[in-house]
Design brief:
The protein is of the alpha/beta class and about 220 residues long. It contains five helices and eleven strands; from the N terminus they run βαββαβαββαβββββα. β7 and β8 form a beta hairpin. One of its GO terms (cellular component) is plasma membrane.
């Protein structure tokens, strides 16, 4: 896979190193000479230029890339790069960093953004996840589809403790994607049994009923 990353700061370089480790081709773009730490990501291609200019994106062979990542510290730049990549070069997938949560509403398909990554939101979700057992926490939202990745730590009194995954009737537009048990992630099968303390990662469509999902996972059935 060929990836162009706009922004060669610590975030962009970290992403580049991870992608290179997975044998992808990476081009890093930044207009600041101080960001040209080529030795830190020596296997990447580097371009000292303004990623908001068409000439720069053309030089980076954006029309040949599979993904463009707008990872600068400026939300305006990230939006412009995403829009140009999608409208001028037809890049199949754009991923944009959101620096200011107040700007998150703009990072959608109208600006050419397929996936918006908000560090403050992710950190907030991690804090909530760390302290809240039995609460549904939104980890990530796919802006193109509106689907969410949700996390819930199964409490001891959950009605699903001891239940096989294949016996659970999930609400519509809801899929159990993974179970994290201790340090071990599990790809759930119909024969896996849910245990107290399991971290469930769930993909829920935009029309999914979150209240019904919470009741299914947490609320014990009413006494008769």
């Amino acid at each position: 896979m060929r990836v162009v990353i706009a922004g060669a700061g610590s975030v962009g370089r970290s992403i580049a190193n991870e992608l290179l480790t997975a044998d992808h081709e990476v081009t890093l773009i930044d207009k600041q000479p101080s960001a040209m730490r080529v030795a830190s990501v020596a296997e990447a291609e580097w371009l000292l230029a303004d990623a908001c200019e068409l000439a720069t994106l053309t030089a980076a062979k954006t029309d040949e890339c599979d993904v463009i990542v707008a990872a600068t510290g400026d939300d305006k730049v990230n939006l412009v790069v995403s829009l140009l990549a999608k409208t001028e070069y037809g890049v199949p997938r754009t991923v944009a960093r959101v620096n200011n949560p107040k700007n998150e509403w703009m990072f959608d398909e109208a600006w050419g953004v397929d996936v918006a990554v908000s560090t403050p939101r992710i950190m907030t979700a991690m804090v909530e996840e760390a302290v809240a057992v039995g609460d549904l926490v939104r980890i990530f939202t796919f802006h193109q589809s509106g689907a969410d990745i949700l996390e819930l730590t199964l409490p001891e009194d959950s009605p699903l403790v001891g239940t096989r995954v294949g016996q659970v009737v999930w609400p519509p537009d809801t899929v159990l994607a993974a179970i994290v048990r201790g340090p071990r992630p599990i790809a759930p099968s119909v024969d896996d049994t849910l245990e107290a303390g399991d971290e469930l990662l769930i993909v829920a469509g935009s029309e999914a009923d979150r209240d019904a999902l919470h009741d299914l996972l947490v609320r014990p059935p009413a006494a008769t």
